[in-house]
Amino acid sequence: xxxxxxxxxxxxxxxxxxxxxxxxxxxxxxxxxxxxxxxxxxxxxxxxxxxxxxxxxxxxxxxxxxxxxxxxxxxxxxxxxxxxxxxxxxxxxxxxxxxxxxxxxxxxxxxxxxxxxxxxxxxxxxxxxxxxxxxxxxxxxxxxx
Length: 145
Description:
Layout: H1 13-20, E1 28-40, E2 48-57, E3 63-69, H2 75-92, E4 99-102, H3 105-117, E5 121-124, H4 131-142
Parallel strand pairs: 1-4, 4-5
Antiparallel strand pairs: 1-2, 2-3
Helix pairs in contact: 1-2
């Protein structure tokens, strides 16, 4: 009997149930997860690199969600939080998207079980034409440009 593969990130079942009560929209989200130049932490504690999970509406470029995260207690734990963080932003926006487009294999693998649970199409693309300008603006702001 083959071993059952554990998903890279758990599906937030309660969040999925809440989101499925919303009316399905035609919105497609562009989603990216990336390291930022931000260093996060109190002066007398260990400083950590900041990571961002950004969700942008595909047609108008509206930022639906932006969450800064740190690898605390470790990178794996941070990655495992991504579906829950995305679910929180979708619920705040009252948005059950028709689809999600991501750039990286890692992010696709992390959110695939969540997207399946929502009956939401998941696609990969090198181009995220509405998210990239928002990401560039965020990064420029962080480095003081």
